[in-house]
Amino acid sequence: MKTIKTSIGRRSFIKRSTLAGGGIMLSFNWLTSCDMSPKQVKALPKEWFKINGFLKIGENGLVTIMSPNPEIGQNVKTSMPMIVAEELDVDWNDVIVEQAPLNTSLFKRQLAGGSQSIRQGWNSLRMAGATARNMLAQAAAQTWGVEVNEIITQKGYLIHEASGNKTGFGSMASLAAEMEIPEEVPLKDLADFKIIGTSRKNVDGTKIVTGKPLYGLDYSAENMLIAMLVHPPAFGMQLKSVDASKAASMPGVKKIFPIKTHLEDYSLGALDNDAFNEVAVIVGDSTWEVMKAKEVLKTEWELAPAKKEELSFFGRTVTVETPAGLESSKDHRQVFDKMSKKKGNVVRKDGDPEKMFKKAAKIIERTYTCPFLAHNTMEPMNFFADVTSERANLVGPIQTPEIMEESISKRLGMDKEKIDIQMTRMGGGFGRRLYGHFMTEAAVISKEMGQPVKLIYSREDDMTQGTYRPAYHALYRAAFDENNKLIAFHVRAGGIPESPLVANRFPAGAVDHYLAEEWSEKSNITVGAFRAPRSNFIAGAEQAFLDEVAETMGKDPIDFRLELLRKAEKNPVGENNDYEASRYAGVLELVKEKSNWTDSDQNVHRGTAAYFCHNSYVANVLDLEVKNGNPIVKKVYCAIDCGIVVNPDAATNLAEGGVVDGIGHAMYSAMTFKDGVPEQNNFDTYRLIRHGEAPKEIEVHFLDNQIDPTGLGEPPFPPIMGAMANALYKATGVRHYNQPFITDKPLAG
Amino acid sequence: MAQFQLNVNGKTHELNVDPTTPILWILRDHLNLVGTKYGCGIAQCGACTVHLNGIAVRSCQLPISSVGSNKLTTIEGLSENGEHPVQKAWLEHDVPQCGYCQSGQIMSASALLEANANPTEEEIEAAMHGNICRCGTYTRIKAAIKTASNS
Ligand code: FES
Ligand code: FES
Questions:
Q1: Cross-strand partners of A608
Q2: What CATH number does the domain located at A471-744 have?
Q3: Distance of CA A31 from the midpoint of ligand 1 (Å)
Q4: Helical ranges in B5-137 per DSSP H
Q5: d(Cα A103, Cα A419) in Å, to the nearest integer?
Q6: Which residue of B has its CA nearest to A694?
Q7: Residue B124 and residue B142 in one domain
Q8: Which of A38, A159, A490, B143 is 20 to 30 A from A629 (CA-CA)?
């Protein structure tokens, strides 16, 4: 049996108190060093992923577990409490889950991002449940005059078999609050899990299907006004003047004014990313009235100058330069052409790749591109703010409440203690709601109005304000000797405004002579993290290229990857390879088996891909059929190694979503620009995958292992793009190099 | 501004509003029925789907002046507590991820099954084409529709 410490030095991670109406409350905070190997601790971005929570056990035996992390559709609101309930040994039916607010003394560092919620919460959530169980057992032992280690628990009951005593948790809860917090508690053996590893329904399911108010956009308060904003029509422009004369007289309009989200002396925080600092605001009684006034509002815009700003990025100061000018996609294409011909920054080199390319008998060289993408969360950006001179209350969808609290405190000049933030369920995140400028805007508008305000972005506002997935380019080269053996590998990747390359990922480590270079070019089109940043392009490019390498060598694409991985496992090149080759191979082997890879149907065209990112491994086989000239995705097999799976059906749902999302973006979606103006601004011009285009069937398999759980929100998304490209080639004989594949032109527009 | 009598979920509401106001915003801002969602405002995403005399329509493109005495049903009126077969099937398949699109999906699916109790795969795809799910729950939606059609 494994035990876990509840303290480090003299600092305990657990606090206990008695509930007002009887019962116990345990609050616990995040412990990075708890039970982790030093290697893992090093890999943690500590500031980002602290997790706190609490649980209450009432006298009636009902257990309330606060879900500390924001819910964006990744289902942590169900799966994180499942982990607590497991160690507590309570009946899941007796558990009530609540979304924790930010900014009580109990909660700090709540964040959804990087597929880290479960990974980082695993130990602390288990410890919290186990500690509560231990204290309940202590209370029962004292009451019955027996040894604590003779007490067993079962589905919310404390049992002492020898004396025949049995009672529910509720009756011991108040006394348990007086017990000592144990310094160390035993954790269950994985084989004894009753809740973890079983499928439990979404705790908000009924509310969702009956249309209950759950989302930020649904929030309302007394006296609340509606605000919308008008931002510049193009990147590289700024507000010159607002002529409110006509719009101000429209029905329901209260006030029209410009705001600056950040003032000149404001020092930008890491997530204050915002293309348009100065915007015109319309405030009115109802959404439709404000929308109509917006149509007639006159604004003048002017070219914005180049900027140089200091940004404090988690303790570091970074200088961000924004060039002036109105950029078009054709300029971006030229940047791709120019930069990919120059040497980039070498980020990894093994052996002597230059020499090997010189003496190669054959070289293949391919380039891959993808356009900017908008997150397009189904629920557009919005936030409620009620700011007075005394306090600020903010309610809405945000992935990073604590970091944004800092920004709002700075902007309003108000102590953080006076700011309350409540998180609503989010209508999608995908990284977009890490950047909370819309919260700051809402706060500034409410302050100006002296009234509660809900700021709403129209779909067009949302889609054209930036924070996009960057546009990327990758050039791959492979060198072969006269026996068609792979002797060197070269990647040169870059993007606007950042590179997609991750230096030490596969196939680094598997090829003796390896070179990776990167480049980037500035832009005034703003970008932000988008589901599986960087991997969301480079995975597909790399996996499509490896397919061509395998083809050149006359090898089966899965066997070829397995060969490389075997080499990386037994005889790795270099020391910093950031993946475990055996786990990588494990998902490929599993997908090979489950898809019957070796004896497949003649009419089905199959593509494969595998990738490692966000600590998890995913491999795909994608089956295409061509019907009336159209490729139809018949079936996708997805094999995943993300360690222990907490809630299998919910995890399957998330993986299915990643697959659909990956196929959709690779096939159909693009943001393009003409003279700074986004050429897509709503779903008539921006194409997202729809029902008939989704795979007819998706089969998800998880590797059965006992490794602590890792992320799942992001990993299933990147590799499927490569599998799609490879299957398209099999079906049509044409390789697709440029996303979206439907047009297959660099930065199609 | 003009006076309207609107029949929503079997109740009549008196409203004095701009006649061009889309039903979406009447529901959300004036009647506090926020289950009907805003996603695009141009009839491209389906988040705002309601029933007009049992037919699925996009409420963001339906001005109040065009409704007259026709009957509107929203997700809140589909059943009292989620016991409509489509809602039950949605729960059985645990369809939602973020959940934001789902009331629109359910309204489109329930109108489809009302008109065609046993739709084929192609008919489901055609009827649901206007409903985007950004989280990609399409395969589950289809499975849930099949379950509901068998019940
Ligand atoms: S909001 Fe009506 S279809 Fe999108
Ligand atoms: S569940 Fe998120 S948009 Fe459909």
A1: A621
A2: 3.30.365.10
A3: 44
A4: 23-25, 75-78, 85-92, 102-115, 121-128
A5: 8
A6: B138
A7: yes
A8: B143
Evaluated on CA atoms A214, A208, B32, A258, the torsion sign reads: positive
Indicate whether B20 and B71 sit together in one domain: yes
Any ligand 1 atom below 6 A from CB of B48: yes
DSSP state of A449: H
Q: In CATH, what class is A3-209?
A: alpha beta
Between CA A125 and CA A86 the distance in angstroms is 10
The contacts found for A593-601 with CB under 8 angstroms, 24 or more apart, are A594/A637, A594/A639, A594/A699, A594/A701, A595/A621, A595/A623, A595/A637, A597/A558, A597/A621
pLDDT category at A119 given cuts 50, 70, 90 is low
In chain A, where the domains are located: 3-209, 216-308+381-456, 471-744
The count of structural domains within chain B is 2
* Closest of A428, A440, A468 to residue A70, by C-alpha: A428
User: Which of A234-238, A418-422, A697-701, B56-60 comes out lowest in average pLDDT?
Assistant: A418-422
> Is-contact A306 A319, C-beta < 8 A?
no
Please provide the size of chain B in residues.
151
| CB spacing of A212 vs B18 below 8 angstroms | no
Which two structure tokens, joined as six digits, stand for A69?
A: 């992390």
Chain A residues 251-310 within an 8 A CB cutoff of chain B: 251, 286-289, 291-292
Backbone dihedral region for residue A223 (phi beyond 0: left; psi -120 to 50: alpha; all else: beta): left
To test the pocket of ligand 2, the residue of B133, B139, B142 to mutate (highest count of ligand atoms within 8 Å of its CB) is: B133
Of A208, A251, A292, the CB nearest to B96: A208
Check B129 against A684: CB less than 8 A apart: no
The CATH number of residue B123's host domain is 1.10.150.120
Distance CA A672, CA A669 (A): 10
Q: Nearest chain A residue to B64 by CA: give it.
A: A288
Q: Inform me whether the C-beta atom of residue B134 falls under 8 Å from chain A C-beta atoms.
A: yes
Contacts of A426 in chain B (CB under 8 A): 98
Task: From B60, B78, B96, give the residue that closes a domain.
Answer: B78
* pLDDT tens-digit series, residues B29-59: 999 999 999 999 999 999 999 999 999 999 9
Q: How far is the CA of B132 from the centre of ligand 1 (A)?
A: 10
CB A582 within 8 A of CB A570: no
pLDDT exceeds cutoff 80 at A671 = yes
Cα distance from N-terminal residue to C-terminal residue, chain A = 59
The reported pLDDT for the residue numbered A71 is 66
- Write down the pTM of the prediction: 0.92
Closest approach of A361 to chain B, Cα-based (Å): 45
Same domain membership, residue B11 and residue B51: yes
Helical H segments across A145-276, by residue range: 169-176, 205-209
- Check CB contact under 8 Å for A211 and B35: yes
The strand ranges marked E within A191-314 are 225-230, 237-243, 253-260, 268-269, 278-284, 298-303, 307-313
**Mode of pairing for the β-strands spanning A268-269 and A307-313:** parallel
- Ligand 1 center from residue A332 Cα (angstroms): 32
Measured between beta carbons, which residues in chain A are less than 8 angstroms from residue B42?
459, 682-684
Do residue B73 and residue B89 come from a single domain? Answer: no
Are A205 and B96 a contacting pair at CB < 8 A?
Answer: yes
Residue B61 contacts A where some CB pair is shorter than 8 Å: no
Q: Which domain holds residue B27?
A: 2-78
* CA separation for the pair A228, A247 (Å, rounded): 13
Q: Express the helix, strand and coil content of chain B in percent, nearest 5 each.
A: 40, 20, 40
- The correct answer on CATH 3.30.365.10 for the domain covering A216-308+381-456 is yes
pLDDT tens track for A253-262: 999 999 999 9
Final residue of a structural domain among B61, B78, B95: B78
